[in-house]
Structure formats: structure tokens, C-alpha cells
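Internal tracking record. Fields below are filled automatically when a chain is submitted to the structure queue. Please do not edit lines marked as system-generated. If the sequence contains nonstandard residues, flag them in the REMARKS field before resubmitting.
Queue: standard
Priority: normal
Entity type: single polypeptide chain
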Amino acid sequence: MRLRHLLWAAVLAGGGVAAQAAQLNGEIDKQFNDSVQKYVSLRERVAGQLPRIKKTGDPAELDERKKALAAAMREERSDAKLGDIFTPDVARRVKEICGQADGAAANATKEGNPKEEGVAVRVEVNAPYPTAAPLSTMPPSLLLQLPKLPEGLEYRFVDRTLILYDAVSGLIVDYIPNAI
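SYSTEM-GENERATED OUTPUT FOLLOWS
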């Protein structure tokens, strides 16, 4: 809501619409980046409290660590809900970007998308992403337009829903239904 007020105030003050839209988009991107950084800081803090793993490269040990991190993150974020990171303003901006992606977003819903592969994924905040489900490919042209994510977080599609996937814990952090 505050962002819309900024836009209207700037328009009434005589600023150009394109410049005001850029300023508004910058504010939305900052809001998103701040939320993402808070999440990553929380994940790092929680991961630091878990027992260390031996550097054996044992897949079973790595999988157990990932499951432990996921459980700890679900507990830490037990009150997390849809829109905590993809706020309404951020979701609106992301949908705009996906809509202007020259069909790239629509194609991404077909390449490696779990729904197209016949694999069910429960899209819910804090839900684990099934290890048997494929991860959709994300076109570089679309990724270049979306706000950059820190290492370990990824944008992915499940059907027409854009999810924020934490590859470190294997959780769905937030999502935007009908992003395209």
C-alpha cells in the first residue's frame, strides 16, 4: 500500500510516469531483496545450530542433514504464510515480468514441469519439494528480468505457479499462484 502512495505522490508532484514506475519497481525489488535476505540469514543461523556433518560426501548423510534443516526451518517458520516474501506488490511485479517474457514463462511451464511429467507437488509454504519431482527449467531471458536470488534459492514453476524453492533445505519458501 505504501508503494502505491509513493507512486501517486510522485505523479502528483509532476514526475514522469516512466521514471516513477522505475522508482516504484526499485522500491518493490528492495522490499523483496530484504525479505529474501532475512530468510537466508535465518536459514544460515538454523543450519549453524545443527550438528556438523563429516566431509565424507556420503549421500545418505547429506540427505539426513537436508531433512534436519527442513524440519528446523519449518519449526522456525511455523507461522509463515503465502505472501510473506512474495508480498502483493512483489507478486504483481513478478507477474508483470512473466507476462512480458515473450512466451519464455509459458514455455517454462512445459519443460521439466512436474505437472507435465505427471508428478504431484503440494504447493504450500514450508512444504517439502518431492525429491522424485523434476525441477522446471527457467529460461535465462526470464531469470535476467526477475530479481536476482542468493545462492541456494531458485525460481521454479509448478504448473502455472511460480515457487521460491530453497535448494539447501528442499522447501517451498513462498509462491505466486497463476504467475503466468
